[in-house]
Amino acid sequence: MSLHPKFIPWDILYSEDEIEIKNVDTIVKYFKNSCSGHKEMAIGVECERSGVYKDDLSPVQYVGANGRGGYLDILKKLNHELGWEVVYEENGNIYELQRCGTRIGIENDGRLELASKPRLDLHDLAREFLFYNHEISEISKIFGIAFLGMGYQPFSTVKEILYAPRIRAKIIDKLYKSGVEKQKWMKLANGLHINIDYTSEEDAIRKSQILWRISSILAAMFACSPLENGKRAKHLDQRLYVNQRMDKKRIPLQKEFLDKNFSFKKWVDYCVDLPIFYLMRDGKPIYPKSTFREFIKNSEKTGNIPTIRDFNLHLKSIWSEVRLRKYIEFRSLDSIPQFLLMSAPVLIKGLLYSENALTAVEKLVGDFKYDELMQLRTDVLKENLRANFRGKSVLSYAKELIDIANENLKSFKNLNEKGEDESVYLEPLKEFIFVKEKSPARYLIEKWEGEWHKDNKKLVEWSTAETRPL
Fold it and tell me: I want to staple 196 with a disulfide (CB 3.0 to 4.6 A). Which of 23, 62, 137, 328 is the partner?
């Protein structure tokens, strides 16, 4: 499959990005033009992971110190030895690589994020992540580094981790006047994002509202961040807790998102009424000190005409759990080990990629109200699957969602070389939900405090496993 046009990295310049924005309707039209209209829809995944040195579990920095390799050294090896092409570089610092439609970017401290090529067949996506994981593992061995499949870096404080020399990290840090709590989100939190196709405005809004209603349930199913600074964290989903506290206007669910008449126009209105962090002109940041709507309104006077490229950069500062772009970006999940990773995109595909599944999920969650969902979010941060909602455990809802997805995936009949359909990737998740009846976070903290005797090396071994540990 060729590179899906909706998933091209925002950093790279494309002709449509230069469309001048005369008014808000220009942006709404841009969204409407994004609708594929195709029956077959792709799924992409973005996965962040923190690196630690195996010998002492200290954090990896972008630029290694004291003779140790850092994230930049890994990026250079990927470029020089494995054919990854540099597509974003400043002053010798590599910030993005790409190969065959897949890209590797970095987060604020330099930790790596893989953004997959969007796939119609999730067997292909599984193979892609397997190859990537092998490459990263082999390169990282040279430097004694392990990449943790966890939603939160469990060993270090924010003071021990430096920012990468990137404009964006410095700007966000300055704007939020980052104390420790803000820096936790920027340096310690690792997410797993699922990118979802839509065929029409109606389809986009329907899928988005379903995702907003099930986001806490899905977050509980994949929660994998129960440790902070070498100790048990206050929440089983510490990443999501830190995330929700970062910016109440740009991250948590907003009440209007669940309105029956929610639309591209209402989403764009929400986005343009938020202050701009920064924009780029001639390779340098500028600071309009206005909302995006005011920026559009004043453009004729200032002569600084906004473009779709500017709006897409503005969108990067809106971290809502469901983010509408030229695709839907679902952002509620913790990063998880390789052996569990494919369960997430496969579950989403099984829930959203057929009319039968959409109808079944809507029947289950379609009347969930805003105030209920906000309380549910608070409950699942600490209790995960043991939280209760409307007289039922979140675990019960999780089982029902898996059953819906499983049946739908089997109906697609997308088979691998072994004759297995895509539902095979739900097996690791089923083991947690149906057998253990607990989230990875609860399982992990029980193991760590129990038979592992707080041995962090065992924690690293579990979180870096490619196949299900016995």
Answer: 328
